[in-house]
Design brief:
The chain has 13 helices and 18 strands. The protein has 444 residues and is α+β, with helices and mostly antiparallel strands. The protein has a domain of 83 residues: 2-Layer Sandwich (Dna Ligase, domain 1). A hairpin with a 4-residue loop joins strand 12 and strand 13. Helix 2 crosses helix 4. The radius of gyration is 23 Å and the shape is globular. The two termini are 34 Å apart.
Amino acid sequence: MTDLYQSQRAMRQMRRQALQRGVVAILDVGSSKIACLVLRFDGVGDLSEDGSIGSLAGQSGFRVIGAATTRSRGVQFGEISAMQETERAIRTAVQAAQKMAGVRVDHVIACFSGANPRSYGLDAKVDLQDQEVSENEIARVLAACEVPDYGAGREVIHAQPVNFALDNRSGLSDPRGQMGQTLSVDMHMLTVDSSTVQNLMRCIQRCDLELAGIASSAYASGYAALVEDEQELGAACIDMGGGSTSISIFMKKHMIYADAVRMGGDHITSDISMGLGVPMANAERIKTFCGGVHATGADDRDMIDIGGDTGDWEHDRRTVSRAELIGIMRPRVEEILEEVRVRLDAAGFDYLPSQQIVLTGGSSQIMGLDSLASRILGQQVRLGRPLRVHGLPQSATGPGFASAVGLSLFAAHPQDEWWDFEMPVDRYPAHSFRRAFRWFKDNW
C-alpha cells in the first residue's frame, strides 16, 4: 500500500512537471484501438487541484495539438497479453500524434479497461474541537478510514473523498476553512489486478516514455460522456469497448462505483464471423455498416453481400438477409446488457435520485442499441459523445474517444485523491462497498 501511495505521489509530481513544460500525451490503451492525444497547456499557470471541472470542457486550459489511433495489438479484455506487440502499437500511435503536433512528448497519462475493478466505500470521523478545517484535518480523517483487506495481487488505482460532513451538515465537497466539532468523510476506493497495471507501466517505459498518471477508463469515460447535471445528480456511464464493457456510476461529481464486463464489440464481431463463415475483418465491416438489434419485416428482404476473397466464385457471392445478421448480433448484445444490469443492481443504482444511463464507446453505435438497453436496464438511456475540447479533430469526437477525452480532462483537473495529502497509511480491517451508498439514501 505504501509503495503504491509513493508511486502515485511520484506520478502526480511528474504530471506537474509535464504541465509546466506545457505538453503531455494522453494514451487510451484499448482492445480494438490505441488512441493518443497530445495536449498543449498554454499559460495555464498553477492548475486547480480542487477537482472542479469547468462547465465547458473547452475552458480547461489546454488544446489538442496532435491525435492518432492505431489498431490495437496484444491487448485482450483491456489487458496486455503480448508485450512486444502492444509496445509496437503504442510507439506507432505516439509517433503519429507527435508528428501531427510537431513536438516531442516525454510524459504520458494512460488509461485502461478490464483488470477486474472492485469498488469499496470507506468512511471515518475525527474530532476537531472547534478548530478550522485545514489540509491536516483532511489528511487525518482520510487516514482514519479503515482500508479493507482487498487481497494479494490487487492495487488501489483511485481513492477519492466523495462527501464530507461537518457536524450535521453533510454533502460538503470541500470543508477547508470551515469550523466544527467533528469532521467525517465517505471515500470511494477502486482496486484492480496489479499485474495489469504493472504490465502497462512496463510497456510505457519500454517505449521510452515517463508515466505521469494512470486512470481507469470507466472513470475517464464517465468524466467525458456525462454532462454536469448527470455527474451531480447521479448517472451511470456504460462504455462499450472492443474487449470489455466498463461501468461507472457518478454522484456529486465523483465516481462512486466502477466495474467491468469482460465482453464487448469484438465478441459480437466474432459471433458474426463464426455465424456467417467470414473472416473477422469482413465481419467487422458487416457489423459496422449493416448491423443492428431490431428486426422489422423489411429486414427479411434487405439482402447483404457477404462476399469473401477465397477465389471460389460460388462461395464469394453469398448474401444473407439483414434479419439473419440481427439474429446473430442480438443475443450477444442482450447478454452484455444483462451482465451490466446485474452490476448496476449490485451497486444499489436504484437508490440514486436520478437513474440516467449514458451509453458510450465504439460499440454503442450499433443501430437500435439505446432502445434495447432501455428495455433491459429499465431506465432512461441516451447515447453519449465526449464533451468538446479545444483542437480535437473531427475524427476523434465520436463515442469511441470518450475515455481519451475524459483522460484529458482528468490531466487538466485531477480530483483530490488520497495520495494528495501527507498522511500515514497503515490500516487494513474490512468494510463492504455498499456503505458508500448509505449516505446517498440518507441524504436524498
